[in-house]
């Protein structure tokens, strides 16, 4: 802080202003914090404090209706000892990894098309692509239940065409149903960031690549893909992080074999009534996601360096 | 000045910015202070909140309440009573909640509920005393739970799709011939107890270590056969109607609702006996609308509500006069009787357990449902 106050001394003095307000206007640091303060306050109250509470609670244990507040790592030991917790964690990561990959793969061509081949009414295209997301998340998940269901759209169609005699039962209540639904439900979060980064690519770079002898495929691999990487990375994070903990979709479509860690955490805070265990599982989930995110970032950085 | 006038003069540039800001401020203060204005005893006043299962949030049950207060009460829905209790322990305040007899002593021990002043209930004298005197409900001569509905948890099956071998029995939900076409309620408060009946464990003995293992083994055996576990009775009813499931663990109402839609189903009378229960209303200790809380309870106890419960849902009701509209044959067809104890004791009546047991049971059952 002493650095910045000397810095403010060097600025042009404004007449009539008190020392404090002059300091405030001239110091870039305090001005920055001043602008940040409403958000910062909200973040502290809404994220930092609850995470701290969660962290503290995860070292407690349940006792009847209350908590035993002596410090213990018993919950963490239990989470790694009993097979159910890590198995569900693995399944959650598996499901959301597939959901992320398929969302990004399916959304990339759409974003690419709008960014490079649509020249009129781009905004309308974007709005049209996000149109399904104007309905509520729960409704979209439920709609998939209708599509995949026993007497659902797919089964009725296939039976009507005479392809199958009895409804396909594996469509609903399976991890696959969860992956399909998550892929659709989160598509907008992939299209938008990827569109933005594709849109920003300087078209003259593509021309230069062509001039220097790159065919369309190499041009894509050497220019478009690396330059759109920030969009792909942010899309992957935007989808991977929330879907790992998702619980509505597995609850409605997962069936007994599609249960995910989010459902288990919800149960700890609900019927099972073991809040400290739920807190521990939440913390473990956060750590898992964070470490996977770091590995992913590292790998993409490596890949980008390789390509360029 | 009228708002439209102001906007008009604004558009014409006749209004100063300051005047406009001033009127905006006036509007702001007006909006902010509106809740402080004295409220007339109009129908638009605050309604009581009733915390219950889906299916109890319908106008047919609140005729008297609407007559008196002009509107339906507010509803909050839980998937199971344990979930509801945890939510209230987390600070959620309602006026009236809807627990069942096996939970009552634990609910009372949380200190979140107040005893009921029965003199404020006009239908209290018609309430069957046997249902009030369930274990743990009356403390120091005052009841905490006002009984409302009672019934059974049993197997609803498609008579055209499920071939019963011998007598109806709990084995139907463990029948390997119908693997993947059986359904179950997800809440341990029903399923675990039914598992105990299937495993042959007397319910008085359900807390023992031996019982735990036997029931867990039975539930594990059943799990691969189950299409889905759900707390949503509509899901089970739709699955039974479409033939996706041929048999499922349900309450009385699912069978009655499906029958009224012309689906060939039957609510089984298992040879081992069904699971029986009584549910009712408890008042939160901090109920913000105590008068309305009593209105909700009184309305639920009314004869009209009772007739609807019996006729359309097939549940027993706690008002003995509600049964007068039905002849004995109709009641028998629904698996009910004017003498509730007869029915409740013919089945296996749920017994209150400790909190530790509940947590352990739920934890184990969740693990089994997840396949462990």
Automatic annotation (TrEMBL), chain A:
GO terms for biological process: transmembrane transport. Pfam families: BPD_transp_1 (PF00528). Its main location: membrane. Keywords: Cell membrane, Membrane, Transmembrane, Transmembrane helix, Transport. It is found in: Cell membrane. The chain crosses the membrane at residues 35-57, 93-116, 122-139, 146-164, 170-196, 217-241, 277-299. Residues 89-296 form the ABC transmembrane type-1 domain. GO terms for cellular component: plasma membrane. It is a multi-pass membrane protein. Belongs to the binding-protein-dependent transport system permease family. CysTW subfamily. This is Spermidine/putrescine transport system permease protein. The lineage of its organism: Bacteria, Pseudomonadati, Pseudomonadota, Alphaproteobacteria, Rhodobacterales.
TrEMBL record, chain B:
It comes from the Bacteria. Keywords: Periplasm, Signal, Transport. GO terms for cellular component: periplasmic space. It is found in: Periplasm. One of its GO terms (molecular function) is polyamine binding. Its main location: periplasm. GO terms for biological process: polyamine transport. It holds the Pfam family SBP_bac_8. This is Spermidine/putrescine transport system substrate-binding protein. It comes from Shimia gijangensis.
